[in-house]
Design brief:
By secondary structure, the chain is of the alpha/beta class. The protein folds into two domains: 101 residues, Vaccinia Virus protein VP39 (Rossmann fold); 101 residues, Putative methyltransferase TM0872, insert domain (DNA polymerase, domain 1, Orthogonal Bundle), CATH 1.10.150.170. 44% of the residues lie in helices and 8% in strands. It contains ten helices and four strands. The chain has a four-stranded parallel β-sheet, covered by helices on one side. Helix 1 crosses helix 2 and helix 7 crosses helix 10. Bound molecules: S-adenosylmethionine (SAM). S-adenosylmethionine binds next to helix 2. Keywords: Methyltransferase, rRNA processing, S-adenosyl-L-methionine, Transferase. It comes from Candidatus Colwellbacteria bacterium RIFCSPLOWO2_02_FULL_44_20b. Pfam families: Methyltransf_5.
Length: 218
């Protein structure tokens, strides 16, 4: 289960009032959404978005039949398209917008999408199933471009070595799972990587997730 980050603090900072129209652009498991929904009451309205179809479906099931909630419109959509979505639905201006970026713990624990380097899973890392998975990106990308992504998106100081190791390993056998990638990274970096403070795969996984989902573009 995902524990919403700083739930009370977020809701307090947003200063949610009864009857407002609030957008949660990153629904996840809906922890923030439900707390906001309680505050705006039945006179309010919410628009909630998530790139992940499973998140939207699970939330619809969760709220089905609940009578004490405001109207909550759920869209499997990128928050980058909020303006278009509002115009299309003729919703007018929203009072508040919440974006809780990144991934949720249930995306690590339940979805089998390869977000965590601590589990052996297919190397997908995409919220939206229609986007190109990381294993395909690693097959197609040029070594130099990969190096730039690792350096720019995660400050990985061994970006060149890791990018080289990934492309070399891919020539022998395709990198298809999280563990395949972790093994390549571990061999490419020094034994005392970051003095043991973080797993050697941490930065590479973060950079690849951001790139695969165009998180900066959103
Ligand atoms: C940290 S979780 C949100 C957790 C949520 N606040 C809760 O209480 O459960 C981030 C969510 O944003 C979604 N997401 C990431 N990028 C997105 C984007 N560009 N547009 C819409 N949803 C996105 C992910 O699929 C994930 O479900």
């Amino acid at each position: 289960m995902h524990i919403p980050v700083l739930l009370n603090e977020v809701v307090n900072i947003l200063d949610i009032r009864k009857g407002q129209f609030v957008i949660d652009g990153t629904l996840g498991e809906g922890g923030h959404t439900l707390e906001i929904a309680k505050k705006i009451g039945k006179e309010g309205k919410m628009l909630v978005l998530d790139l992940e179809d499973e998140a939207i479906r699970a939330f619809k099931t969760k709220i089905a039949g609940k009578k004490d909630l405001p109207e909550i419109i759920c869209e499997n959509e990128n928050f980058a398209n909020i303006i278009e979505t509002l115009e299309e639905k003729n919703f007018g201006q929203a009072d508040r917008l919440l974006l809780d970026l990144g991934f949720s713990s249930n995306q690590i624990e339940e979805r089998n999408k390869g977000f965590s380097f601590l589990r052996t899973e297919p190397l997908l890392m995409t919220y939206d199933a229609n986007r190109k998975p990381v294993y395909e990106i690693l097959r197609e990308i040029r070594e130099h471009d990969l190096e730039v992504i690792l350096r720019d998106l995660s400050d990985e100081r061994y970006a060149r070595r890791i990018a080289h190791a990934i492309k070399e390993a891919g020539k022998k056998e395709r990198i298809l799972t999280t563990t395949d990638l972790v093994n390549v990274i571990e061999k490419a970096v020094p034994k005392n990587y970051e003095r043991g403070r973080i797993n050697p795969a941490t930065r590479t996984f973060m950079a690849l997730r951001m790139y695969a989902n165009d998180e900066l573009g959103s």
